[in-house]
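Hi everyone, sorry if this is the wrong subforum. Our group has a chain we'd like a structural model of before ordering constructs, and none of us has done structure prediction before. Sequence below.
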Amino acid sequence: MSTLKTSIFLKISIIIIIGLLLLIPASMIKTLIVERENTQKEAILEVSSKWSGEQTISGPYISIPYYRYIKQFNKDSIEKIIQVKEYIHFLPTALKINGNISPECRSRGIYEIVVYTSKLNISGTFNNIIFSDLDIALKDIQFDKAFVSIGINDLRGIEKQIILNWNDDKLSFNPGTVTNDILESGINASVKIYSNDSASYKFSFDLDLKGSQQLYFIPVGEVTDVTITSKWNNPSFNGAFLPDSRNISDSGFTANWNILNLNRNFPQKWIGSNNNTNSSAFGIDLLLPVDNYQKSMRSIKYAILFIVFTFIVFFFVEVLNKIFIHPVQYILVGIALIVFYTLLLSVSEYLNYNLAFIISALATLLLISGYVRAILKSNSLTGLISGILLILYTFIFVIIQLQDYALLIGSIGIFIILGLVMYLSRKIDWYNLKMGE
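Answer:
Right subforum, don't worry. Here is the predicted structure as tokens:
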């Protein structure tokens, strides 16, 4: 015990070992944060499975089957002709989508999930559908088998029967897709297509669709114009394209996209399944105002800073005031610093994250301050240590709020802390220093 009290290097070694050991429960809390986040995702999937999942609207596409003939030779070198059925796909010349999204929050246990209902009006034209440049004989094209397809990720979200206005005709859609060249899930309707290249087709339909969290669109038009409004005031615009104009206020948002065919990497017509349209999807993510798990994960990354700086302060108190602080007391204070993160995680699941941070920080400060007062029996030293911890918690709180500048502010803060430590220790004679009793 006397060696522990007098040997400064032994004490430093013990403090370092304690600090490293405390990183083990810190890493366990990181794992706990991930587990809680996964539980939230499972709750979202459960609600989505009963309501409807994320939705992506694709199309409409005109698809027309045709026969292609292939020469083959059998084992006796006898030639035979094989008839293969393929599809020609045409995209609209103009596509216009106007819609309104009505989100609402659903609860599953302690978790909230955003679901929505949407009312969309989709209209446009197919002009100049030219067959003469396809190098396909017109007799091989089955014009009477032509159909229009609309891609919808989760068909359970369709709330009303969809009627397609096709020129002067009113047509009902059928469930499913005829071919998987473009779509894996969707609806289709048989339409009249003529063989002359000058034919023009106008279309429109209303789509009442339920979904969860996301509503995306594929810009299949030569010109695609999408306007979406909603009362949701915390949207995130994601995907391949951002809105050309948007207005977000406390009462909701309005966003407009205007996308040309030159902005995406697939043509207006093709044969077979040679193009991937999903890479051009864009739309809206309906976010909840707070992501407490992401913020908790960001805050615990600074656990090593709390432990190291608090232990340095304790060590300097020992050195400069000739006071002996037992390693067990270091351990208890370190555990209190780690418990802060479990408090923060658990409280933030029920309260606003900022409020949860303040409650957890104050509770930890009171616990450590009371303990320090009891072991040091000095109001001034207790006030010093409490003030330093308060500055640290305030520093972390500011970093979490300033997400874009977190690295910059964090680096500057750590640099200043290092400078203070070097300044305070500049006159200590480490070779002749002995710990006090």
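For your construct planning: The two ends are 11 Å apart (CA to CA). The chain has eight helices and 17 strands.
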